[in-house]
């Protein structure tokens, strides 16, 4: 990085490009951390991990033993190995549910509240300071996943996907169910709010369908179809005409008859396209073939939207990962290399903030794919059993993974345990190589 730093000092490299290169270099150097360790209190498989969105400091975990725990990712509780290994014990852990926790998320506004969902049919709202239940919702079936919008300013809704075919929205203010979204033909395994609109919700069901909902209207306005595709990324926007260009004061010539006819045909075709789009988006009245479209040959067990809200990643029990263009609803045909995904439970995907890499739990390993080419960048192996969830902490450029082996592993940019200017003595203490023996 010294070369980039010199270019930044000289002014040949801008601040945004410098930050992007520095971030990319740290993400590329991720490896199993030898300086940080989370002491897991769980006695079951870890199914959910999330760092709070306000401070980027507190890690919330939920496990199949019905317990949830909170860790401080920045301040360790004790040190081992002469101060080299930072041990992070849980600030608190509590028996939150009777059965396993499928999802645990922070309240997006602050760290004073967090929400847990379980297979015991309950969604519970917790006060972080008192560790007491503030509110709970009884669902008609097992809760597989839930989500809250990180950009919402007009509502505080929790979207929950259950073994029931309907998606239910719970309001934190009134404590009641406000919406019931019907359209899936089987249980709903994954839910995700849009990162560009606070009213758009995306759900993936066991029927293989991914549906888009606008909570201000009835019915889903889009069902993704894997047969509708477009190649590659969306083309960039055309540059705006410059205001400095000289204006021509010559009188415009009268268009010929051929030009007038071609313009009329173009307007007619555009009008037909608009009418067709309106017919597709209307509900009810959606064609049965489109309403039964599938995004995967099997259950959709994972959804993750990119930070800009333009693309959606989905994983299925058919061991496929697909990238969708949200605006057109088309499959971008990115061919992600071979993977093997779990089929019995939802998995938690993670994407870097610059939308360059995606982290996918693949049985006992974690694979890193280039989002746009589909090539495998890295394969992380450290867990002894299947990996269920992962979360990328953009503030510290760290990756956290949870597995059936009950452990939470930290993947951080590789830093030598002993630098070139330091050495460890027989007691494990760090001393400098060029330190003299006679000075105070």
Account of the protein in words:
The model is unreliable at 237-255, 272-288, 416-424 and 426-434 (pLDDT under 50). The protein has 440 residues and is mainly beta. It has 4 helices and 32 strands. It has helices at 2-10, 15-28, 257-281, 288-291; strands at residues 30-32, 36-39, 46-51, 58-63, 67-72, 78-80, 85-95, 101-106, 113-118, 122-127, 132-138, 143-148, 157-162, 167-171, 177-181, 188-193, 200-205, 210-214, 220-223, 300-305, 311-316, 321-325, 330-331, 350-351, 357-362, 365-370, 376-381, 387-393, 398-403, 408-413, 422-424, 430-432.
Q: For the residues shown, what is the average pLDDT?
A: 84
Q: Describe the biggest sheet?
A: 6 strands, mixed
Total beta-strand segments: 32
Radius of gyration: 26 Å
Give the structural class.
mainly beta
Distance between the termini: 35 Å
Low-confidence stretches: 237-255, 272-288, 416-424, 426-434
Q: Nutshell version of this structure?
A:
The protein has 440 residues and is mainly beta.
Topology, please?
Blueprint: H1 2-10, H2 15-28, E1 30-32, E2 36-39, E3 46-51, E4 58-63, E5 67-72, E6 78-80, E7 85-95, E8 101-106, E9 113-118, E10 122-127, E11 132-138, E12 143-148, E13 157-162, E14 167-171, E15 177-181, E16 188-193, E17 200-205, E18 210-214, E19 220-223, H3 257-281, H4 288-291, E20 300-305, E21 311-316, E22 321-325, E23 330-331, E24 350-351, E25 357-362, E26 365-370, E27 376-381, E28 387-393, E29 398-403, E30 408-413, E31 422-424, E32 430-432
Parallel strand pairs: 2-7
Antiparallel strand pairs: 1-30, 3-4, 4-5, 5-7, 6-7, 8-9, 9-10, 10-11, 12-13, 13-14, 14-15, 16-17, 17-18, 18-19, 20-21, 21-22, 22-23, 24-25, 25-26, 26-27, 28-29, 29-30, 31-32
């Amino acid at each position: 990085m010294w070369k980039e730093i010199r270019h930044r000092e000289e002014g040949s490299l801008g601040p945004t490009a410098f930050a992007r290169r520095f971030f990319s270099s740290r993400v590329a150097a991720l490896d199993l951390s030898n300086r940080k360790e989370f002491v897991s209190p769980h006695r079951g498989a870890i199914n959910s991990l999330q760092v709070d969105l306000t401070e980027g400091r507190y890690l919330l975990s939920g496990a199949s033993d019905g317990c949830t725990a909170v860790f401080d990712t920045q301040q360790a509780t004790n040190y081992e190995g002469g101060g080299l290994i930072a041990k992070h014990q849980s600030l608190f852990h509590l028996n939150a549910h009777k059965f396993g926790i499928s999802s645990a998320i922070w309240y997006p506004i602050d760290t004073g509240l967090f929400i847990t969902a379980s297979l015991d049919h309950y969604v519970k709202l917790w006060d972080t300071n008192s560790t007491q239940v503030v509110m709970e919702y009884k669902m008609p079936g097992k809760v597989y996943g839930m989500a809250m919008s990180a950009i919402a300013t007009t509502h505080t809704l929790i979207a929950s996907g259950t073994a029931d075919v309907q998606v239910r929205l719970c309001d934190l203010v009134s404590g009641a169910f406000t919406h019931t979204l019907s359209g899936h033909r089987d249980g709903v395994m994954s839910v995700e709010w849009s990162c560009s609109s606070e009213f758009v919700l995306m759900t993936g069901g066991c029927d293989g369908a991914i549906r888009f909902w606008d909570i201000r209207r009835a019915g889903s306005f889009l069902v993704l179809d894997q047969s509708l595709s477009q190649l590659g990324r969306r083309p960039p926007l055309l540059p705006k005409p410059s205001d400095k260009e000289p204006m021509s004061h010559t009188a415009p010539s009268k268009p010929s008859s051929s030009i007038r006819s071609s313009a009329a045909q173009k307007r007619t075709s555009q009008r037909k396209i608009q009418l067709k789009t309106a017919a597709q988006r209307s509900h009810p009245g959606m064609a049965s073939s489109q309403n039964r479209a599938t995004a995967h040959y099997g259950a959709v067990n994972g959804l993750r939207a990119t930070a800009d809200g333009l693309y959606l990643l989905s994983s299925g029990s058919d061991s496929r990962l697909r990238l969708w263009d949200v605006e057109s609803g088309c499959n971008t045909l990115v061919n992600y290399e071979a993977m093997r995904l779990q089929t019995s439970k939802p998995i938690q995907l993670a994407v870097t903030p610059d939308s360059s890499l995606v982290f996918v739990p693949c049985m006992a390993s974690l694979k890193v794919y280039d989002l746009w080419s589909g090539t495998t960048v890295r394969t992380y192996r450290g867990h002894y059993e299947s990996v269920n969830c992962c979360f990328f902490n953009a503030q510290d450029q760290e990756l956290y993974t949870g597995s059936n082996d009950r452990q939470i592993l930290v993947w951080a940019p590789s830093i030598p345990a002993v630098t070139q200017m330091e050495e460890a003595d027989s007691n494990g203490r760090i001393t400098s190589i060029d330190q003299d023996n006679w000075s105070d």
